[in-house]
Write a structure and sequence with these properties.
The chain is α+β, with helices and mostly antiparallel strands. It contains 16 helices and 27 strands. Helix content is 32%, strand content 30%.
Amino acid sequence: MRAGVGRRNWRSSKLSNRMKVLVLGSGGREHALCWRLSQDGSVEKVAAAPGNPGIVEDGFECFDIDPNDPTQVCRIVENKFDLVVVGPEAPLVAGVADALREIGVSVFGPNKDGAQLEGSKAWMKDLLVEAGVPTAQHRTFEAGDLDRALQYLEEVRTTSGVELSIIKTDGLAGGKGVTVTQSLDDAREAVNQYLSGEAFGDAGKKLVIEEGLTGPEISVFAICDGKDATCIGVAQDHKRVGENDSGPNTGGMGAYSPVPFVDDLMIREVMDTCIGPTLKALQARGISYRGVLYAGLMLTPTGPKMIEYNIRFGDPECQILMMRLTGDLAIALKACADGELAKVLMNEGRFEQLGLSDYNAITVVISANGYPQSPVLGDGVSGIDEANNIEGVKVFHAGTKITEGQLVSAGGRVLNVTAIATDLTTARDRAYEACSLINLKGSHYRKDIAYQATEYEA
């Protein structure tokens, strides 16, 4: 990327004991984390496990291991790395952070107990109610509860007055376990498929049905050390595969930040009514949550309501946050891992170690032909170098691999074309110019990322 974005913090550049950091994961989020952490003065080395071709191309060492296997991860990390940053949710749910902490390694990411916030939507919803966090009315059902679940579908639409049904798998489903539909018949079919295991296997045999909420959806990111938390950014992503939010939900087709209709007052409200009470409720359950709290919120007419928590940086939201963050990110993440966030962030009463630039950032996901239902894998990918030569652009690899010396698609979401500029229009223009230079047979990307911001400004 030609634009000078990730500015080093002058304090961290003078540190004598520089860190070696391992990023767990293989997608666009992890590529962005490696890229950003390498710019910190406190960091001596960044590596990834297992990584991807883009991470290798940028000069980072990659270890070919299963990131969900605690034994393999500990073998790579022990006595070699000072900090492990866990990218995806699956290793956290599998207890990788627990195993690393047992051998004395600093880990940015919650233990298995805290990972239930994303690992079980029913558990998360119970915690929200316990904490008094505003959220949609909901109920949990399991296999064998089909008749009661179908009855509740109609009941919740009647009581909420919103002709919208939300059905979610209780367990992890790769970001695709949510069905949102205005059709009651489609909602009934989804419930049948979930509870039978046809749609998502065991992950869907326990499900949550929620009332439909209306309003814009935003993502708020806070880093936590078990006691304290600070917001590090707000973004808006685009879940649906098609323009104007049409088609099925995906893992995310693009995102942008900042969000023009979210001000400091609203962020404070979210921190006070959602993030803070959630941390206290976790503490009350004996859980020291050290990692990201990614709050997905709906800005309803009666105020922000929590849709769900994720336990890791969003994907593709992470990519734009990494473009905007200033200061020494590694120091802040290490402080969270060690339970010392307030000590590191505060210096003479001012937040110095981490901040956000005034730049606008946008990322556009280039997906494989057939995504999300049946993505075609193994097609050649080219044009990335030309895209990266555009000012302010960085292309992060999300689902690629090398086959017989050729870069090919290896996942549904293949590339994250990310751009930054002083204004959103220029950032969008740069991103879409870069997208036009990339060749992937049958690929698709949305042409309207950040349209909400454009409509708001108009």
